[in-house]
Design a protein that fits this description.
By secondary structure, the protein is mostly beta strands. It is 10% helix and 42% strand.
């Protein structure tokens, strides 16, 4: 009898852990190193980008002046990267091996885990370059420009091995995203914005992408939200997408398998008191992290990737 009760309790705890949202990290507003900054009392501006690594470290781009802070899951500051040029950092991306790409308004810097600069190049050399949109494959880094260009680098960041524009692809196939070495196009029906088409191809150097996309199979999905965007891909090849929803939940997260078939969805409440461009991120293991804020604090919630199982 005791064994049966124990087994049932374990099952219930497992189900609870899969289907609940847990608080991952909580930080206060303030000027101390272990706090985050915001603009006065209106909270229009605050941290806009964050990334959670497989080792549990949470990197957050602080503001005014922009600096990169890394916290453990107890909210303890473990690293703090300040801009030696005094200009303030704008954006960043942490590679799997710990190296960091980081940007100010003048330069893009490639540095090691300690903060020592390995390479630096002018942003004017690659117009519109955005470190907030970086994809890392086994061999390449894809830097997506705000002007619609993609710069493909090898891991040594010597020089782009290829550059291409996404403007033509977007007009013909929909919004372009790159995760690892997969190029995705999300096409939304203008008459029915809940009716979407997704296609994907594997990046191949010096191959015309429009020809590959023209031959790619199309996956049609009907969803119950609008303003859709692809947000990430886990190490198992699953793809994640978010959309706007209605009260009491304002966002829906969709999980697609490697063949772009809809596995499931999760309604969430994403509460932000300040503007944040990327408030939901997906880790390599498939866990989902959601940034929230109010007048008193900034916090990140975690949803287990098993919630879709």
């Amino acid at each position: 009898m005791r064994l049966i009760v124990f087994v049932l309790l374990c099952i219930c705890l497992n189900l609870y852990s899969q289907n609940t949202t847990s608080r991952y990290i909580t930080l206060s507003w303030g000027k101390n190193a272990n706090e985050l900054r915001s603009i006065k009392d209106d909270f229009v501006y605050g941290p806009e980008h964050f990334q959670v690594l497989e080792n549990g470290l949470c990197f957050i781009m602080d503001i005014y002046p922009g600096s990169l802070k890394a916290f453990d899951d107890n909210g303890k500051l473990v690293r703090h990267y300040k801009d030696s040029e005094g200009r303030g950092y704008i954006n960043f991306f942490v590679l799997k091996d710990g190296r960091i790409l980081i940007k100010n308004d003048k330069s893009t810097i490639f540095m090691d885990e300690s903060g020592a600069s390995l390479k630096r190049f002018s942003n004017f050399k690659y117009p519109g370059i955005s470190i907030g949109k970086v994809s890392e494959s086994d061999d390449h880094l894809f830097l997506i420009s705000s002007l619609g260009y993609v710069y493909v680098f090898r891991k040594d960041m010597e020089a782009p091995v290829q550059e291409f524009s996404t403007s033509f692809l977007s007009k013909k196939f929909g919004l372009v995203n790159i995760f690892r070495d997969q190029i995705f196009c999300l096409q939304i029906n203008k008459q029915n914005k809940k009716d979407v088409k997704i296609r994907s191809i594997t990046y191949q150097p010096d191959v015309a992408l429009n020809k590959l996309l023209s031959k790619a199979s199309i996956r049609k999905i009907n969803v119950e939200s609008i303003l859709l965007r692809l947000i990430g891909m886990d190490k198992y090849g699953n793809v994640y997408m978010t959309g706007e929803a209605y009260s009491p939940y304002n966002r829906i997260i969709y999980k697609l398998d490697s063949e772009l078939k809809l596995i499931g969805q999760k309604k969430i409440l994403n509460s932000l008191h300040h503007y944040m461009d990327n408030s939901i991120v997906v880790s390599q293991s498939g866990d989902i992290y959601i940034a929230n804020s109010d007048k008193n604090e900034f916090w990140i919630d975690k949803i287990s990737g098993r919630v879709f199982d």
